Amino acid sequence: MEQARIDIINLRLRTFIGFNPEELTKQQDIVINAQIYYPAMSACESDEESNALNYKTITKKMIAHVEDGHFKLLEKLTSDLLAIAMEDKIVSHASIQVEKPHALRFADSVSLTLSAKRAC
């Protein structure tokens, strides 16, 4: 079985993230990186979109969730995005990284990564 890995790289969005007073009222930049795995044998052989995982649909759901949400913790946001990535039963496993640029004074960003694997 051929495993495909779809990489969504540096999806830049804005949302309410954090629990400090200024974070509750001002949107901040976040950067999302996702790796989504699925068995791609049928898509490789048929060249039919119906046999492939629709990464555009997944990305649109992630964008809507982030832009419409308010989150205190990176853990919650990352967990929600991982659940969206795992919604389609064809997905075998996924990993989501969310970066919060400028979260620390002397660092480029802080990031959190969560992964999930579907039970066989």
Describe the model.
By secondary structure, the protein is an alpha+beta fold. The chain has four helices and five strands, in the order E-H-E-H-H-E-H-E-E. Strand 4 and strand 5 form a beta hairpin. A five-stranded mixed sheet has the order 3-1-2-4-5.
Q: Describe the main β-sheet briefly.
A: 5 strands, mixed
Structural class: alpha+beta
Low-confidence stretches: none
Q: Give the CA-CA distance, first to last residue.
A: 14 Å
CA gyration radius, whole angstroms: 16 Å
Order of helices and strands: EHEHHEHEE
Number of helices: 4
Strand order, sheet with most strands: 3-1-2-4-5
Oligomeric state: single chain
Estimate the global geometry from the Cα principal axes. Answer: elongated
Helix content: 25-40%
**Can you count the beta strands?**
5
Summarize the structure.
Helices cover 32% and strands 39% of the residues. It has helices at residues 21-25, 41-46, 55-68, 74-86; strands at residues 3-17, 28-39, 70-71, 93-101, 109-117.
How are the elements arranged and paired?
Layout: E1 3-17, H1 21-25, E2 28-39, H2 41-46, H3 55-68, E3 70-71, H4 74-86, E4 93-101, E5 109-117
Helix pairs in contact: 3-4
Main traits of this protein?
39% strand, 5 strands, 32% helix, single chain, five-stranded mixed β-sheet
